[in-house]
């Protein structure tokens, strides 16, 4: 008994240091030597899991959860939960792990704020969206069981995990959804079943009485709508080009949506496609629907994509200077067009899909004479890569 409590207190002391220093090796050592529960508390009533969440350290969070750490435990004086700390850290991955482990997103701290409200308060928009878009896996697995008179379930069990991943995605740009579906062909292969399940989920969210979630209901409707369109394109493909079938579908779909309108900039086709989606939402009495329609029908309406994004992922402030991919809207993309450097992309695939739009502007930008003060503004690295391009070209 004596040795056990000493052993525990030494683990208790050192584990908080290891977390504070982000020392994963030491952290693993401590856990390996410690047998028994891992709900350690520091002198302020914070658990090791809360500390790891606050650090945004997903490996440590995962290891503690694997060892059975209680995700909703804590005696923090302001009632912060592990999810509150994860939200403050800005790590969406940590929040996702905590939510998967059963963290209650509705828990409030002593000033009445939920984890997602705390994330919004400190400007962690992606984390806000991750928490607000979260649904437990059980919501979907319900449809993989045979109900009542059914002989087969709505959703094959094998599709529960891929569909869960698809539904939790925060980037709802239709081209991003198409690119994601390309990597999970099982959802496209079973599109009709998946669409039916999404429609049932939508209806369920609207008929929960006090717990009605209009936003999630709209998201299910939206995903079903986009999936149906991609499925229709795929269906029309002749079987002869079986090999690049998947590839082509994304290309046809993104060409349809990214083609600029008469002014050469605005995405008229995308706008029409998405407005039709809003129009087809079956629950026309709800506040969410009315807000979207009044926004789309206003005098100088914002693009339908941004209306839908605001609805699903929450309104953003005015500090939207974050760079995004010109093809799929992903934030902070890794690559720039090497020729003109005025557009950004996630990867080669996104660049390839956008080239039919960008090629004109790219030639114009890169052949335009540089303004006279260009030398002052350009940084040395950029200049040398420009020179390399010239040499290579
Ligand atoms: Zn992209
Ligand atoms: Zn370019």
TrEMBL record:
<dbReference type="Pfam" id="PF12796">
    <property type="entry name" value="Ank_2"/>
</dbReference>
<keyword id="KW-0677">Repeat</keyword>
<dbReference type="InterPro" id="IPR002110">
    <property type="entry name" value="Ankyrin_rpt"/>
</dbReference>
<dbReference type="InterPro" id="IPR002893">
    <property type="entry name" value="Znf_MYND"/>
</dbReference>
<keyword id="KW-0969">Cilium</keyword>
<keyword id="KW-0863">Zinc-finger</keyword>
<keyword id="KW-0040">ANK repeat</keyword>
<dbReference type="Pfam" id="PF01753">
    <property type="entry name" value="zf-MYND"/>
</dbReference>
<dbReference type="InterPro" id="IPR036770">
    <property type="entry name" value="Ankyrin_rpt-contain_sf"/>
</dbReference>
<keyword id="KW-0966">Cell projection</keyword>
<feature type="repeat" description="ANK">
    <location>
        <begin position="78"/>
        <end position="110"/>
    </location>
</feature>
<dbReference type="GO" id="GO:0008270">
    <property type="term" value="F:zinc ion binding"/>
</dbReference>
<protein>
    <recommendedName>
        <fullName>MYND-type domain-containing protein</fullName>
    </recommendedName>
</protein>
<feature type="domain" description="MYND-type">
    <location>
        <begin position="325"/>
        <end position="362"/>
    </location>
</feature>
<dbReference type="InterPro" id="IPR052452">
    <property type="entry name" value="Ankyrin-MYND_dom_contain_2"/>
</dbReference>
<dbReference type="GO" id="GO:0005929">
    <property type="term" value="C:cilium"/>
</dbReference>
<keyword id="KW-0862">Zinc</keyword>
<keyword id="KW-0479">Metal-binding</keyword>
<feature type="repeat" description="ANK">
    <location>
        <begin position="44"/>
        <end position="76"/>
    </location>
</feature>
């Amino acid at each position: 008994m004596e040795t056990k409590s000493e052993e525990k207190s030494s683990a208790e002391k050192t584990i908080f240091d290891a977390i504070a220093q982000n020392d994963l090796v030491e952290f693993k050592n401590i856990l390996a030597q410690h047998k028994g529960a891992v709900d350690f508390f520091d002198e302020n009533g914070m658990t090791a899991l809360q500390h790891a969440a606050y650090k945004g350290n997903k490996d440590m969070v995962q290891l503690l959860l694997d060892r059975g750490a209680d995700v909703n435990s804590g005696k923090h004086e302001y009632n912060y939960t592990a999810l509150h700390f994860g939200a403050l850290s800005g790590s969406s991955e940590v929040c996702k792990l905590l939510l998967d482990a059963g963290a209650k997103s509705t828990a409030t701290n002593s000033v009445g704020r939920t984890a997602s409200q705390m994330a919004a308060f400190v400007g962690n928009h992606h984390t806000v969206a991750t928490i607000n878009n979260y649904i437990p896996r059980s919501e979907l697995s319900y449809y993989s069981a045979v109900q009542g008179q059914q002989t087969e379930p709505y959703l094959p069990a094998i599709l529960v995990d891929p569909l869960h991943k698809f539904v939790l995605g925060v980037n709802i740009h239709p081209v991003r959804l198409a690119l994601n579906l390309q990597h999970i062909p099982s959802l496209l292969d079973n599109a009709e079943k998946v669409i039916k399940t999404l429609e049932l989920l939508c209806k369920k969210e609207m008929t929960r009485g006090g717990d009605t979630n209009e936003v999630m209901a709209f998201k299910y409707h939206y995903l079903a709508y986009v999936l149906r369109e991609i499925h229709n394109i795929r269906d029309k493909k002749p079987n002869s080009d079986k090999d690049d079938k998947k590839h082509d579908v994304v290309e046809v779909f993104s060409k349809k949506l990214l083609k600029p309108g008469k002014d050469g900039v605005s995405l008229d086709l995308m706008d029409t496609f998405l407005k039709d989606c809003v129009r087809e939402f079956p629950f026309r009495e709800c506040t969410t629907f009315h807000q979207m329609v009044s926004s789309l029908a206003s005098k100088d309406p914002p693009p339908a994509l941004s209306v839908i994004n605001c609805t699903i992922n929450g309104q953003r402030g005015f500090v939207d200077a974050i760079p995004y991919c010109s093809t799929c809207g992903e934030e902070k993309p890794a690559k720039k067009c090497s020729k003109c450097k005025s557009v950004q992309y996630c990867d080669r695939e996104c660049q390839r899909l956008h080239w039919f739009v960008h090629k004109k502007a790219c030639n114009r930008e890169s052949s335009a004479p540089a303004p006279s003060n260009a030398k002052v503004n350009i940084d040395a690295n950029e200049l040398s890569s420009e020179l390399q391009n010239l040499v290579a070209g």
